[in-house]
Write a structure and sequence with these properties.
single chain, about 170 residues, alpha/beta, Rossmann fold, six-stranded parallel β-sheet, about 15% strand, globular
Amino acid sequence: MDEMKERLSRIKLLLMDVDGVLTDGKISYLGKEEFTSFHVQDGMGIVIAQKKGLKIGWVSSRQSISLLTRGEYLKISYLYLGRENKIQAVQEIAGSEQVCLEEIAYIGDDINDLPVFRSVGVKFAVANAREEVKEKADFITKNKGGEGAVREVIELILKAKGLWEY
């Protein structure tokens, strides 16, 4: 078993930023109403991951009704929205799940994700992440944020665990 597959097989918790990871990073407004688009394949990947026992959490410095609505619809275990200190949020989630930081994978795209990258077991950057983030990532997805990158990561983790049997 190669080293990355071994590390992925030990992942118990997948955490991720939202804007730029689950979305294309664009935020649209019609007056005061915000519209955010999510990729359906990412949503299906999250549903499959949760059914296979992989816990999912979102850690975003932004808070909005659209993020909360999508997160609740997908029954995300940990919705940490409006959290400027992402590493503190990750540590709280790890404590709640009783997992060590090495058992956590994180998907990010921008410099505010770098403190988390320094702490977790496996670091993923989406294809359109900032260069500083890509340089620190263990793996860069082929897909861009909002275009199936999360599904790509979920499949990698579940395959490493022997849980992707379709």
